[in-house]
Specification:
Largest sheet: 5 strands, antiparallel
Structural class: mainly beta
CATH architecture: Roll
Oligomer: single chain
Number of strands: 7
Distance between the termini: 21 Å
Radius of gyration: 12 Å
Shape: globular
Order of helices and strands: EEEEEEE
CATH topology: SH3 type barrels
CATH class: Mainly Beta
Number of helices: 0
Strand content: 35-45%
Length: 73
């Protein structure tokens, strides 16, 4: 995924407010959500996403790209 892509975050996925330092905040999704990809680390297994008005880190293995035409608003 690249910057600006939408990603699907399933229910019960943990997001952290920091990855490289000690995280001070966590968020666990209670229902499926969407987020905007801000940055993908090539050497780590994490994505930086914009979700609910803030930047979060989430494991690449727990989110899925949303392709054009898949998201209906």
């Amino acid at each position: 995924m690249k910057r600006g892509d939408l990603c699907y975050i399933p229910q019960d996925v943990m997001l952290m407010d920091e990855f490289y330092n000690t995280p001070s905040g966590y968020l666990k999704t209670i229902k499926p959500q969407t987020a905007i990809v801000l940055e993908e680390s090539k050497k780590d297994a994490w994505l930086k996403v914009f979700f609910q008005g803030a930047e979060w880190f989430v494991s690449k293995n727990e989110v899925y790209p949303i392709k054009e035409g898949q998201c209906r608003l």
